[in-house]
Write a structure and sequence with these properties.
By secondary structure, this protein is mainly alpha-helical. The protein has a domain of 395 residues. The protein is 76% helix and 1% strand. It is built from 21 helices and two strands. Strands 1-2 form a two-stranded antiparallel sheet. The longest helix is centred in the last third of the chain and has 40 residues. It is globular, with a radius of gyration of 23 Å.
Length: 567
């Protein structure tokens, strides 16, 4: 009997693919525009269950596999958006072809899928890591009792955000910034009128966004304004120090992840991986009483996986002009970085995929004579693989809680990953065609913060002492358990983005306070049920605002390309 029956279904694949295309496009836009990418898993879980129930009888495992397909492309888009635009930032021209981006994306997807097939048992069953995002998705499905109101809230908020975006960006009827004329030398002050950025602040959480905003205050009003006022440096120098320090803090967080979460358990992970590299996920051996597992089938599957990895090495060597040594380094270190990504996501819920890409980029640059553009390809492949690995492992955790067949989930992830690669590349091509390469960068329409970090590491850091200080501080603060990645993001990003996200977090504080007051007179059981419903409403509406602006932003870019306009 097929254990995946009733889990991986035709209608689930269709719903998952439609959702995957939409979420991937929105995620690519969000990652480039906001310099951040919230996990879409819980949102995808709610939507999957909603539409499956609307079509008739379903079960949680079918919803889980459907949401696995739906969310897969988001992290593929993130891996591309966090690395490849660095090429445009440096060259100020779209010098990379669409087929090269597609090779990067598909190579990362294949490596991520093969690696997660091998490490699933260790991280999900043996190590039993928390994977808070995957656990939350499972609990969301268990507690999910969606109905017509959920759909109305979601699509209503998406429509409002989309209409606002069109009025702002297409018709010019709404200004993009409030208080943008405030004359503060070196500080991009203002409130960005963006439902998406407000939603990001609402969804990320008050504590994390407060740390983000603290970083913005330190970087802009501490280093730039304060340092300039005290005569330590001029405004331009202060801006270079700020950006370098922000990059250093984010890199330091990545180093901290490795030192705190990865290295202490590296030997055990490698030993477990060597002992369990049977790819039982993909080809579970049939066991009967008194009969040994089908070793031949397991060897065949492992052989196919090895063949896929070898094919990736060959394709990136030929298609991306990487020399053989660089290709081998990328393929071998993809296993290491995917395990690092799984460990980080499992313990913290954070997947610093671009940091892992930077680490491999630097190793390749030191070991091989690789051209500048090819270094971005290296970082892109690793970032996509690690992003997909984080998403896959979260989904496996949800499946482990719900009893979903991992093979069905892996197949769903493969479908969503490949579709996500196609959609993400299409969106990236459309955006650079519509807006031009100059639109990407810290002062452009698309800040592409992570790609900017990669570009700076490749082309040269403005202030090496500030970067080194930030690196040490970021690592130390992460070791102390502080949300230092958000601090570095605040130091690095333009102030108006941090301020707007902070206003979104404050809206969450106000919303929670109002909801708590309304629950005060209810019985404990009624209050608990109302709290869950109110929490879901906030999540759905905020996700709709984020998705609405993202989707319409992509549509505007598509329309501008079709009409030959320059945005």
């Amino acid at each position: 009997m097929n254990p995946a029956k009733g889990q991986l279904t035709v209608r689930g694949i269709v719903i998952g693919c439609i959702g995957c295309a939409i979420i991937t496009a929105a995620s690519a836009y969000t990652a480039l525009k906001m310099g951040a990418l919230p996990w879409p898993i819980i949102f995808a879980a709610i939507i999957s269950l909603f539409f499956l129930k609307a079509l008739g009888k379903t079960n949680l495992n079918e919803a889980n596999v459907t949401h696995t397909i739906m969310s897969a492309g988001a992290m593929v888009a993130g891996g591309l958006a966090f690395t490849i635009p660095g090429i445009w930032i440096i060259n100020k021209a779209p010098v990379v072809d669409w087929w090269q981006m597609l090779i990067v994306a598909l190579a990362g997807v294949i490596l991520g899928l093969v690696c997660t097939a091998a490490i699933r048992k260790h991280f999900i069953e043996d190590a039993a890591l928390e994977f808070p995002i995957g656990e939350a998705a499972a609990q969301t499905l268990i507690a999910g009792d969606t109905g017509g109101k959920t759909g109305a809230k979601l699509f209503g908020s998406m429509g409002l955000a989309g209409a606002f975006c069109a009025l702002r960006d297409w018709f010019g009827a709404i200004p993009a910034m409030l208080f943008g004329n405030a004359a503060i030398p070196g500080v991009a002050f203002g409130v960005y009128l963006s439902p998406m950025l407000l939603a990001v602040g609402f969804l990320v959480g008050t504590v994390a966004v407060s740390v983000w905003f603290l970083g913005a205050l330190i970087g802009n009003f501490g280093i730039i304004v304060g340092g300039s006022a005290l005569g330590f440096w001029d405004t331009a120098t202060g801006q270079g120090i700020t950006s370098s320090a922000g990059m250093g803090v984010m890199m330091g967080c990545g180093v901290g992840v490795i030192l705190k979460n990865i290295l202490p358990k590296a030997a055990r992970m490698l030993k477990a991986g060597a002992a369990s590299s049977t790819f039982r996920l993909v080809a579970a051996p049939v066991v009967h009483e008194g009969v040994q597992p089908n070793k031949r089938r397991m060897r065949l599957t492992a052989g196919l996986a090895a063949l896929a990895v070898a094919a990736v090495a060959l394709i990136v060597s030929i298609g991306l002009s990487l020399d053989p040594l660089a290709s081998v380094i990328v393929v071998l270190l993809a296993w290491v970085t995917c395990a690092m990504s799984a460990q980080s996501v499992g313990q913290t819920g954070i997947d610093p995929m671009e940091i892992f890409g930077l680490i491999v980029l630097l190793i390749v640059a030191a070991a091989s004579n690789v051209a500048q553009v090819q270094l971005f390809f290296v970082a892109g492949i690793i970032a996509v693989a690690c992003g997909l690995a984080g998403d896959v492992m979260n989904d496996f955790k949800a499946g482990h809680v719900l009893g979903t067949d991992p093979k069905a989930q892996w197949i769903g992830q493969a479908i969503g990953g490949v579709l996500g690669a196609l959609v993400a590349v299409a969106v990236m091509v459309v955006l650079v065609t519509a807006y031009g390469a100059d639109a990407f960068g810290i002062e452009g329409a698309f800040v592409a913060a992570q790609a900017n970090v990669v570009a700076t590491m490749v082309s040269g850091i403005p202030s090496v002492p500030a970067f080194a200080t930030g690196l040490v501080a970021g690592c130390a603060l992460y070791m102390l358990g502080l949300p230092v990645m958000m601090l570095g993001l605040g130091i690095y990003l333009p102030f108006y983005m941090s301020l707007t996200a902070f206003l979104g977090a404050m809206a969450k504080v106000g919303y929670d306070a109002v909801c708590k007051r309304r629950r005060a007179k209810l019985s404990p059981d009624e209050a608990a049920a109302r709290e869950k419903a109110q929490g879901e409403t906030g999540l759905v509406v905020a996700s709709g605002l984020l998705g609405g602006e993202s989707i319409v932003g992509v549509l505007i870019a598509f329309a501008s390309v079709a009409m030959g306009l320059s945005l």
